[in-house]
Every structure is written in structure tokens, then in C-alpha cells.
Amino acid sequence: MSVAHIMAAGMGGIRTAGDLVAWMQLTQRMKITEAKEYVAQKLGVNVIDLVDEELMHQVRQDLNIATLPMIADGATGMVAKCRIAELLGIELNSVNKFKSQLDFSK
User: Fold this and answer.
1) Which is nearest to 57 in space by CA: 15, 23, 85?
2) What is the pLDDT of residue 8?
3) Distance from the CA of 105 to the CA of which of 14, 19, 33, 83 falls in 20 to 30 A?
């Protein structure tokens, strides 16, 4: 359901910053305006730039947090999700579980 909401919200999902804004709305219960401002600050861009596909492609590529189209040697899947969680300062159960499975000291 959350993916459908992200796409329906019209911010372009992973092509821009729609997925990042949606994460803040879902995990931190932020209103959309607050979520956009938070994400823009974390990315170092203006709020209006969050929907610019060309600019956001470059920002996402620089931060290695997944892009569309996918680029060679770019982060995808869980690696990208881990980077996004760290960048936004949020806890995601799937990321925590993934990281705990990588802990070979147990």
C-alpha cells in the first residue's frame, strides 16, 4: 500500500525525491510540507528542486542512494535503502534486520 501511495502522491518516486518524502511521512508522521523541507535540507537542495528529475538524478547519484535509470556500480536494493535510512536519520526494520544478518560475530 505504501508504494501505491508514493506513486499516487505525484512526486515521481525514485526519479525525484518522492520516495524520500514518503519515508518521512510514514516513519516520522510528518505532514508533507514538513517532510519536503526536512528532505531538502538533508539533500542540500531547495524544496522546489525535489521534483526536478535531472537535478535529483545527479544528487541521488552523488549520494549513491539509487537512481532511475539504474547506473553501473550504483547502489540498489537493500544497500540503497540502508544509505537512505542513514541519510534521513530514520530506523527501518528491514534495514536493521539486514544489518544484523551481516554481523558475523554472533
Assistant:
1) 15
2) 47
3) 83
Burial class (CB in 10 A: 0-12, 13-18, 19+), 20: buried
Nearest to 16 by CA among 64, 52, 62: 52
Structural domain count of the chain: 1
Q: How far is CA 68 from CA 13, 14, 34, 88, in A?
A: 10, 7, 25, 20
Encode burial over 51-86: b for 16+ CB neighbours within 10 A, e otherwise.
bbeebbbebbeebbbbbeeeeeeebeeeebbbbbbe
pLDDT at 43 over 80: yes
User: By residue range, what is the domain housing residue 50?
Assistant: 2-102
R_g of the chain, CA atoms, integer Å:
14
Q: Report residue 80's pLDDT band, with 50, 70 and 90 as the boundaries.
A: confident
Q: What is the pTM of this model?
A: 0.78
Q: Could you tell me the three cell numbers for 49?
A: 528542486
What is the pLDDT at residue 6? 53
